[in-house]
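Researcher: I'm comparing several assemblies side by side, and this is the next one on my list. It has 309 residues spread over two chains. Same procedure as the others: predict the full complex and return the structure.
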Amino acid sequence: MTAFTATVTVRLKRGVLDPEAETTQRSLERLGFDLNDLRSADVFELDLDADSADDAAERAEEMAERLLANPTIHDYDIEVAQAE
Amino acid sequence: MTIAVIQFGGSNCDRDAVQALESLDFDAELVWHEDGLPADVDGVVLPGGFSYGDYLRAGAMAARSPIMAEIREAASEGTPVLGICNGAQIGCESSLTPGAFTTNESARFQCEHVHLRVENADTPWTSQYEDGEVVELPIAHGEGRYEITDERLDELEAEDRILFKYCDEDGTVTPEANPNGSKHSVAGVTGEAEHVAVMMPHPERATLSDLGRTDGRGVLTGFAD
């Protein structure tokens, strides 16, 4: 078994309204920053022991499907790295 | 006939629901989620509140608690289930009902009275009303915007699974009368079977005449059908 960190990034699907991101963008613009768009996402870092990176990714995917993301409104991606 | 009102950590409309149901001559009991669903219940209310502090997403944690598997099982066998507010979020998160309730378009918590148009009066939850009737109920939520794909929503509309839409006092559905940016102004939907339903507005807060209007009685009366 090897120690891995699986990073799951959950974001709203394109086209789904994100009022928090819009509010954040407006605040940045009020501070004088110039930007075209802002998207927010949730990042979960999962430390787990697995036989392989693929195995770790598969388990992280199941966690994303079952709880971390809501497939109705979210997309997610997973990156796996050996833990340092 | 006994209705179980499920308490999760952070539920706060549980006792309101019991009182409202008892005022309509139902037996209602509070059921702590860890105690499991009693075998003899004839209906289930998932009440409003902020279960698990709305961590991750409103309703996400409660939807994965073991009692929800029991409730899905009971629902599939015909037990009526009504999710209100946080209970509606839990219902959608647990796939009892389609879609998702997410952050209001305003990004604010909104606590106000709204008008709702009855879209389908041929369900247990709406049979006390007429099609197109306008009722007034309170809302109190930060994550009540109904989201679902356009295709799926068209299917729900075609299948008459929309219970209520936000509207103005004359019953016209307008963007201005939509308090939270819900798609198609949807305020409540049914599951695969019409004895399972969720809605963001609070019928239990508009049931006791001491508190003003009683437009919500008809929804809770659905447990008798």
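Model: For your comparison table: Chain B has one domain: 2-224.
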